[in-house]
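Troubleshooting entry. The earlier prediction with uridine-diphosphate-N-acetylglucosamine gave an output that would not parse, so I re-checked the input for stray whitespace and re-submitted. Clean input:
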Amino acid sequence: MKILTVIGARPQFIKAATVSRVLQENRIEEIIVHTGQHYDSNMSDIFFEEMVIPKPNYFLNISGLSHGAMTGQMMEKIEGVLKDEKPDFVLVYGDTNSTLAGALAAAKLHIPIAHVEAGLRSFNMRMPEEINRILTDRISTKLYCPTTTAMENLQREGFDTMPCEVLLSGDVMYDAALFYSARSVNYSTLEKYKLAAEGYFLATIHRAENTDSMETLQAIIGALNKLHEQYPVVLPLHPRTRKIIQDRNMKVAFQIIDPVGYFDMLNLIKGSRLVLTDSGGLQKEAYFFQKFCVTMRDQTEWVELVKGGFNMLTGADQSKIQQAVQQFITRQFDSKSDLYGNGQAASVIVKNLIA
Ligand code: UD1
Ligand code: UDP
């Protein structure tokens, strides 16, 4: 059996790391195609090195274009690779332009698609990710859902009656967090950034809905500037947001650092007082390590975190962000449940894929 994996963006390297390892353990041939969507060494290479992900067989070098141009160019090149490699399955992750390009190219050649992280919905069709995930789900043959909410979303959309298989696999990001957390302990991350355990807020910002409007980004930066007076704020900054902050000459009072590798990131989460983010992955990682999370978006796909009281949605509203932080820092994070499976999602996926 031959699996062809299409990845291109940071969160996909992290998700693919655990599944690739289980594929290797089962001696399944995996061809990795890296679209090039993320290309800086601290957005790409570092994950392959630290997490020991096999080197991509193909690097397509497509990045920094408009959504249509990026997706179209990826499709064209992936189609060529698929014709040469003739895989039994194309494996895609999440909801980026690389996900959709991989899925569409496969569907047009009638190659079955396996989608890891299927069924998530924000119900906001203005988000590029929502378009990518709905379309990818619709043309997939095997849909691996990380949560029961994702299963319910697909049921509501009629997937029960479609010629595809929907499976509750658990979340491969939980597998990754558990597996690599033990390996990250020698990284001395807090010393490197001069941070005290439980003595700082960890933030990230990169979503288009927050960075593309001056007003929204200013509200978030304003909130973080204010919070920095209470606890130091540290923000590993995505290159998209860095460019915008620099171009607009925005005033930042807190510590901006370059994007970090996964091991440093795990340590930054574990050492933080709480997390403020618009990242999908980070919302869950905060929960895995028992940190409250303020999500600076209007919707989340990880609704179980909000229902459970672990996560608050504030949008890009400066006063809501500050209020959410003040509420969380007085609370004890004392609940641990298995919202995202048992850390064996990759095994469930591979077992199903090769059955
Ligand atoms: C993409 C995904 C988003 C995901 C995020 C993870 C889509 C539509 N969006 O958003 O769902 O949450 O990745 O991080 O696929 N850039 C660099 N160096 C890099 C990568 C990006 O400088 O290594 C800059 C470029 O200016 C680029 C911009 O960031 O144009 C945006 O990158 P892009 O991949 O288009 O979108 P992301 O915001 O990263
Ligand atoms: N991450 C990282 N270094 C950073 C910022 C994020 O390793 O500097 C990790 C983070 O821990 C999570 C993943 O990248 O595992 C999330 O990716 P991102 O926020 O870019 O995308 P999203 O999850 O929003 O799609």
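This one parsed fine. Residues 146 and 264 are 25 Å apart (CA to CA).
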